[in-house]
C-alpha cells in the first residue's frame, strides 16, 4: 500500500491494484507544484470525492474526463454530473459499500457542509461524507472534512480501521487537539496521517500537538509527493 499526499486534503492511494485519487485538488493548490500534476494522477483508476467545496472538487470533472475514470461519491451529486456532464460515476450513500475491483469502499457520515459553485450561485448537492477503504488486509478511515462525532465509535466497532487520515487544520474542521481526541477516544489506530492543514495561514501549520497527544501511535506528518509505504 502506498499513500501519497498531494497537499491539503488530496491523496493518491495505491491499494489492491487500484489507484484512488481522493479529493484531488491540483490547479490552485498552493502546496502542489504544477510539475507534479502528471505524476500525482498517473495511472489513476478512480476518483473519490468527500464533498463539493472548491478545495476538494475543483479538478474532479476535468480529471474524470481527461483520465477516463469514474468518480465515486454521494449519489445526488454523482447522478447530477452523470446527466449534466456525461462522466462515468459510481453513486452511493452513507452506509453503502462499493467494490472497486477488490478494494471495498464504505461511505460514512461526516459533519461539515457542502455546496458547489454554479452560475446561479452555490448549489447544495447531497451531503458531506467520509470513507472506510478496505484492501490488502488493512482498513483506512478517510475522515473528509468533519468535526469529532460520537458516530466515530460506531465506525470503529463496524470497521476497526488501523490507519486514520484525519482533517486536523482547525477553523473549517477539527483541529489537532480535536483530531487527537477523536483518535484516542473512538479508534485504535496504528497510524494517523493529518491533512487539511498547512495550506493557508488560517490553518494549523504543525502536527506537534497531534503527535504529543497520541503516544504509541505512529503519527506521520506527510510531505507533498513523498510516498508513504505501509
Secondary-structure content class: alpha/beta
- The helix content is 10-25%
Which residues sit in consecutive blocks of at least 5 with pLDDT less than 50?
A: none
Distance between the termini: 5 Å
| The CATH homology group name | Ribonuclease Z/Hydroxyacylglutathione hydrolase-like
Name the descriptors.
alpha/beta, 29% strand, globular, 16 strands, Metallo-beta-lactamase, Chain A, 230 residues
Mind explaining what this structure looks like?
With 230 residues, the protein is of the alpha/beta class. The chain has one domain (2-229): Ribonuclease Z/Hydroxyacylglutathione hydrolase-like (Metallo-beta-lactamase, Chain A, 4-Layer Sandwich). Helices cover 23% and strands 29% of the residues. It has 7 helices and 16 strands. The chain has helices spanning 37-41, 54-57, 60-67, 75-85, 151-159, 176-186, 208-213, and strands at 2-5, 11-15, 18-22, 46-48, 71-74, 89-92, 97-99, 104-109, 116-118, 121-123, 129-135, 138-142, 163-167, 191-195, 218-219, 227-229. It has a 7-stranded mixed beta sheet, with helices on one face. The protein has a 7-stranded mixed beta sheet with strand order 7-8-11-12-13-14-15, with helices on one face. The chain is globular and about 50 Å long. The termini are close together. The model has no long low-confidence stretch (mean pLDDT 96).
